[in-house]
UniProtKB/TrEMBL annotation:
Binding residue positions for substrate: 98
Active site: 37 (proton donor)
The protein's name: Oxidoreductase
Family classification: Belongs to the aldo/keto reductase family.
Amino acid sequence: MPQLGFGVWQVPDADAERTVGLALEAGYRSIDTASVYGNEAGTGKGIAGSGLPREELFVTTKLWNGPSETWQRDNVLREFDASLEKLGLDYVDLYLIHWPRPMRDDYLAIWRAFEEIAESGRAKAVGVSNFRPADLRRLRAESPLVPAVNQVELHPLFPQTELRAVHAELGIATEAWSPLGQGKELLTRPAVETVAAKHGRSAAQVVLRWHVQQGVIAIPKSVTPSRIAENLDVFGFELDGEDIAALDTLGAGPDARRIGPDPAVFDV
Ligand code: NAD
């Protein structure tokens, strides 16, 4: 899986073909969409229009385990078929459970269906998103299939230190959503600006480099061509220990702050 990918949340379906096309042209090879983003069809058109061989691309989508009360095998398989159809693909590289919704207590049943999907080869790998340490341990205890990835909110203001240690222990790759903190206050924090000035790079590049150097997979989103290119251009410089320490102070201890919902209470 490429360590840097392109996220398409909030890209309208009508724009997704063009935006995904721009990202693939700029050099991205990994695209992160989801059923609930409503842009799998446009994303699929962008992929098809790129003319790139399928095996050079890494496509992720996610199960929106929302509309029914409690999810069963059949709901999952039907949703997965619908996603493949919209994308115009006969397999995805990664299929994720979008949210654990622990209050519904059905992610184990969903994961059984994910085991089947993985077995069929129609998803080359399966994983989860927004799972907490207890959810991951429960899956580990109940299933022989370890999630390949847990995609979670992660950036210097919310570094997920405890969760990353659990991932390392269980052999799960960490993928960061909102890796730029959604382009909000994180990018204007003095610590970020100072490190950016030191390297002659943008704030976004410094934050993405922080992810890369820690072995985290990041999927920044932009619809602006110059930023799409800028966000991928983070392999030609290196942060030193002092830079990393300065960025680490932003989310240390009680300063850690989420932007998005808390998986413990979020029910799609
Ligand atoms: P992000 O951290 O990638 O920030 C994107 C925003 O930052 C852009 O809209 C723009 O305003 C700004 N930006 C982008 N590049 C910039 C640059 N170079 N300079 C300055 N500003 C810049 O936030 P995101 O879109 O929330 O997250 C990225 C992807 O993560 C999504 O597109 C989606 O694929 C995924 N995601 C997944 C979940 C989940 O529950 N699994 C939740 C949210 C997002």
